[in-house]
Design goal:
The protein is of the alpha+beta class and 185 residues long. It is 24% helix and 32% strand. The protein has six helices and ten strands. Strands 1, 2, 3, 4, 5, 6, 7, 8, 9 and 10 form a ten-stranded mixed sheet that branches. Strand 2 and strand 3 form a beta hairpin. The longest helix has 12 residues. The chain is globular.
């Protein structure tokens, strides 16, 4: 089982045997991971809210009606944007080459007013020191290098989860294409 020193810039694809948990069939874009803990954003859980509904004074532009994604079960007051506009004033943290995560209201205004491609997330997934590593020991996650298409998707939750496993390839692709549940074996 893969157990990288850091998952920053990678995605975690949940093992489907975790069936009663928020993380069932999730794909998480990892923003940071070191010996003090880990932090990521769930990519495949869309909320029923729009940007306009959760952020005050958003300009009257089409992207104001874009969905807000549920970034994780931790801190619903945490709001961030994942985008690829390096020219933005304070684009945020570069998580992987050309992909940024920022949190400022000014960045959100810039992204909406300039018709940039971005996703907005409310909440996050977090792990304390050693917690994620122990989940690797229990085979809870498959680690994968994401594509930009995977990060900026609008696919249904199960579809993106399966697509991620297919992109991972090998035995994961085989089970997605040949079994009802790729994690049963």
């Amino acid at each position: 089982m893969e157990k990288p020193a850091s998952t920053k810039g990678l995605v975690l694809i949940s093992n489907s045997t975790v069936v009663t948990d928020f993380f069932h069939k999730t794909v998480i874009f990892m923003v940071d991971h070191d010996d003090t803990g880990a932090f990521g954003i769930v990519l495949n859980k869309k909320s029923d809210n729009t940007i306009r509904e959760i952020v005050k004074n958003v300009p009257d532009v089409p992207s104001a009606e874009d969905p807000v994604w549920i970034g994780g079960p931790v801190d619903s007051m945490f709001v961030c944007m994942v985008h690829r506009d390096a020219s933005a004033i304070d684009p945020g943290v570069e998580v992987m080459p050309g992909i940024f995560m920022g949190r400022s209201y000014e960045l959100l205004m810039y992204l909406t007013e300039n018709n940039c491609e971005f996703r907005i997330f409310q909440g996050y997934a977090g792990w304390g020191a050693g917690q994620l590593e122990s989940e690797f020991d229990r085979f809870s996650w498959v680690v994968h290098k994401p594509t930009e298409e995977l990060i900026f998707n609008d696919l249904d939750s199960d579809v993106l989860w399966k697509k991620s496993l297919v992109e991972k390839g090998g035995i994961y692709k085989y089970f997605v294409e040949h079994t009802k549940d790729p994690m049963l074996n």
